[in-house]
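2024-03-11 09:14:02 DEBUG pipeline.ingest accepted 1 chain
2024-03-11 09:14:02 DEBUG pipeline.ingest length=239
2024-03-11 09:14:03 DEBUG pipeline.predict start
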Amino acid sequence: MTSATASAPAERTSADPVALVTEYFGRAIHSLSSWTGELAGALHEAGGRGAVTTEVLDDLVEPYARRTFDSLDLPVYGAGFIAALDWLSDARSHLAWWQGADRAKLVLASQSVNKELIDYSELEWYRVPQSSGAPHVAGPYVDYLCSDEYTITVAAPVELDGQFVGVAGLDLLIDQVERDLLPRLSAFGSDVSIVNGVGRLLLSTSARRETGDSIRGSSLEGFERGACPGMALEVLTAR
C-alpha cells in the first residue's frame, strides 16, 4: 500500500536524545488524549438515544480522526477508534478508521473473512491500554490489518461510565518516522537506537541495525540507556 504524504513536524531542538524521542511521541499521545473524553461524552449521548451501531460510531469518530490528521504535526498515516469486542450492537468488532494520503475510510475486503472477524484483544495496541488504563506506544510491527507496512501505533483507552469501550489510535509508518528522527538523532552519535519495552528496535542511526532487531541481555552492555517517561520506549546510545 502506498505511504501517505505528510508534512514533516516543525523543527524542535532537544538537549539529549531521550528528550527528543519523548517529545516526538508525546505529541501523538497528547493529540489522542485531547479528544478521548469528548468522544466518550458523545458515545454516552448516542447510547441514550438508542443502540450504538457501527454506522453511529463511524459518524461520531470521523471528525476526531480528521482533527488528528489536520492538527498534529507528525506523519500520521491512519487515525480513528477501535471498538471493544462485543460492545457494539451490530458487530463483534469494528474499526472506525481513516488512512492514507486521501484519508479514506478503511473498508476491509469482503473476501478477507479473517480480517473482518479478527480478535484484536491480544494485539499490543489494544491489550496494553485496556489493561493499564493509560496511553501506549506499540510496535514496531507489520500492520497486516491496515497498511501492510512496518508501523508504530499510538493508542489511548476510552471509557464510558467506567467501562472500557475501545481505543483511540493513530498509526505512524516506520519509514516516515525515520525521515523525521534519524537526522536529528544523528547529532547525538552514529549508533543511537530506539527500542520498545521488550528490546525490539524501532529505528537506529547505525546502518548495522534494522527495524525489528532485538537488543537485550548482554547486547545492552555497550550502551547508555535512557527511559522515555510516560511510554515504554528506551533510547540506547553506544558508549
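2024-03-11 09:14:41 DEBUG pipeline.report The chain has five helices and ten strands.
2024-03-11 09:14:41 DEBUG pipeline.predict end
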